[in-house]
Amino acid sequence: MEQPDLRLRAFVPAPPKTVYEALTDPAALRVWLAEHADVELPGKYEFWGRYTPDGAEPHQRVLYVDERTIRFAWTVDGVETTSEFRLDEEEDGTLVTLSQTDLPSFEAILADTAGARGALQTFWTLAIANLADYLAGRALTPKCDFTSADLRAEVVIDAAPEAVFESMTQTEQFCRWSGANVEIEPYVGGRFAMGGFDVDPGGVKFVEFEPGRKATLRFADGLTASWELEGSDGKTRLTSVQSGFDPANPPYPGWAGWLAGLAELRRYHELPGWTSIWRQIEVTGVPEEMFSADLG
């Protein structure tokens, strides 16, 4: 395939044959990837529905298939892109490589002018995170509903609220589990800067901050992102909400990315000897400073 704009590499805890089955069994795809799926290889590989960008109908066309590779054309917003899964065996599991062409510019994504293609990076990040949990027999993280302006999700994390809150608001911990380079000032009026203060000197500001309970961030355009934590029996129910945006143009790329982060946050707290599933996150046009060097 042509040089991709996105390359994700992640370790999943299953042999290549099992991973391939999860990638090609329509029933499995309907659990971890999409609302609808129809697969009859080598001729058909389709998925669509509300959890798929531009997903009213299937828009995929198979290009190449073997026992370790699935490559398909995917038309999104009228632009034909190419997506590819590649599986490589590793000790105790499989390295899954997802490559994607024809992403819009990073500037267009930040400006919310990229359309459905602007969500492809975070769509795939969340999908692979859920694939890893599906193969491990774990509960999945809620998918992004690309038909809804109600950006709200709940997850239960097997850890106390104080520990979860600290991992979401302390720079060192946040960078470790998220794979993102972030600097955080954990107090009302403090900044939350993706890429660090050198990249984003103004940062997003905390307008609410109650340790162990809740926090709210406000962006310059009026968007707010909040999370509330409720503890019970040593576990945390974490509710995340984004609001304050134009309901005709919800910020799906950022929301799907946050959901993908929640998947890794859950693993960080719940898996003994945790290491990130991510081996590589490479996106054309995104500053290297946005990503932490501390990938698995």
UniProtKB/TrEMBL annotation:
Query: Which part of the chain is the Activator of Hsp90 ATPase homologue 1/2-like C-terminal domain?
Result: 14-135, 158-264
What InterPro entries does this protein's entry cite? ASHA1/2-like_C, START-like_dom_sf
The protein's matches in SUPFAM superfamilies, at most eight in alphabetical order, are given as: Bet v1-like
- Give the family per the record: Belongs to the AHA1 family.
Name of the protein this chain belongs to: SRPBCC domain-containing protein
Write down the species. Answer: Trebonia kvetii
Organism classification, top ranks?
Bacteria, Bacillati, Actinomycetota, Actinomycetes, Streptosporangiales
